[in-house]
Automatic annotation (TrEMBL):
Organism expressing this protein natively: Neogobius melanostomus
Source domain of life: Eukaryota
Family classification: Belongs to the intermediate filament family.
InterPro entries noted in UniProt: IF_conserved (IPR018039), IF_Keratin-like (IPR052857), IF_rod_dom (IPR039008), Keratin_I (IPR002957)
Lineage of the species this protein comes from: Eukaryota, Metazoa, Chordata, Craniata, Vertebrata
Gene3D superfamilies: 1.20.5.170
Protein name: Keratin 222
Length: 261
């Protein structure tokens, strides 16, 4: 099939129109795509702006929180410094107290050691004194035995002396009684004459006599002796019974006078 020159012109014209339409379509599609991208970019921009505003808000909040944390940090640092100063002073005081207590503990230990030494010394002294006391006690018991023997001898000597004294007193009393008996005989002879003349005129009167009793008691206690009842000698008693008339004065001799003589 043959085409003429008019046909070729029409084809060129159609081709040009097609190319123009195609270029327009491409531009239109490109514009739509660009507008779509612009729209998408605006939405993204809006979202980005919203996110930026939110980020700014968060940033402001974080700034406030950071400032608050900085203030808290400063306050904590200040309180930490104060606490450090306080506890450092307390530690110094406690270290001084500990050093003082350690010194006192050392003194107490030294005192305990000294007291332990003194206690041991006193214990040794006590044991030594107890041994010496037991030794002295045995010696004293021996000396007491000897002393008791000497006391018995002395008591025996005193007894002998007392017997001698009592015998001497007995002899004196016997002499006095003999003298009294002789004097009484003489008085009786003279009284018989007087009584004979007296009762001759008074026959109703009866002769009354009195009994003269001389009790002579001598006792001497042994001084320094515990058993006086067993060791003492019995009392010596001398009795003289005489009959006299009431007209003659009675002769009395007390035991105290004889004991004093």
């Amino acid at each position: 099939m043959n085409f003429g020159p008019g046909t070729k012109c029409n084809r060129r014209t159609q081709h040009r129109s097609y190319s123009r339409i195609l270029s327009r379509f491409i531009k239109y599609s490109q514009e739509e795509a660009a507008w779509a991208q612009v729209n998408q970019g605006g939405a993204a921009l809006r979202e980005a702006r919203a996110e930026l505003a939110e980020a700014r808000k968060q940033w402001h909040a974080l700034q406030v929180e950071i400032e608050t944390l900085h203030a808290m940090e400063k306050g904590l640092e200040t309180s930490l410094q104060q606490t450090q100063r306080l506890y450092s002073s307390q530690l110094q005081d406690l270290s001084q107290v500990i050093s003082r207590l350690e010194g006192e503990l050392e003194q107490v230990r030294n005192g305990l050691a000294t007291q332990r030494q003194r206690h041991n010394h006193l214990l040794n002294t006590k044991m030594r004194l107890e041994r010496e006391i037991s030794t002295y006690r045995r010696l004293l018991e021996r000396e007491e035995g000897r002393y008791n023997c000497n006391i018995q001898l002395v008591k025996h000597m005193f007894k002998l002396r007392d017997i001698d004294k009592r015998l001497q007193l007995m002899l004196k009393l016997i002499k006095n009684v003999s003298c009294v008996s002789l004097q009484d005989r003489k008085d009786r002879q003279s009284d018989q004459a007087v009584e004979g003349s007296f009762f001759r005129g008074n026959p109703k009167l009866r002769k009354k006599s009195v009994s003269l009793r001389f009790d002579l008691h001598m006792s001497m206690a042994d001084e320094g002796c515990a058993q006086t009842k067993q060791d003492s000698l019995p009392d010596v008693e001398v009795r003289l019974v005489m009959k006299r008339s009431r007209s003659i004065a009675s002769i009395t001799h007390t035991s105290t006078t004889h004991s004093a003589s």
